[in-house]
Amino acid sequence: MFGRFMPQEGKFFDLFNAHAEEIVQGGKALAEMMQTFAGSSDAPQDPAENTGNVLSAAERAAIIDAIEARADKITHDTVLLLHTTFITPLDRDEIHLLITRMDDILDLIQDVAQSMDLYDVRNVTPEASGLADITLTSCEHVRSAVRLLHSMENANTILNFCQEIDRLEGEADRLMRSAMARLFRTEPDVRQLIKLKEIYELLETITDRCEDVANILEGIVLENS
Question: Phi then psi for 124, rounded to 5 degrees?
Fold first, then answer.
């Protein structure tokens, strides 16, 4: 009867790694979406007109929805395991906070993709594409740091990845401010301005959530190494 309360330390790290992989897949899908529509005024007007290999915003959003759903399942499994495991490898609050903050990253990636579809955004700026690239790199660093969390012998390397995530958040913030300034100076279409402003803000917020995860990882490392 006590079998389900036996330590399952490795399982938690497997779940963290699986979720981090979904974060990167979501980041890649979002960056590809932005690259497709960056500087393009001839994106397909509807799925029926898409006779080539270019996916529509709705199709790309659906891909990201599927990724986010898989990540939600991993989050649910992690929380369930947390409640059924007597001895955990990290503090229970740290485990719960880490997996939920990781899930926040994919929630925002999904928000961007859905906004692109719902607002019928067919032409994004190089700045939006640049922000998406920064978010992807941030997601990749989150994955790299999480993969090392199983051993505190990796403490210095984890902290280095966390510092790089912090740097990227600052870079994204600067790019967003520059993009906003240019948008309000040069965009004559008010509807396009409103759409792009929200896309910029959502993209930059993804790097904020990556920074949140980095801060949690730093705390775990400093407390356990």
Answer: -110, 160
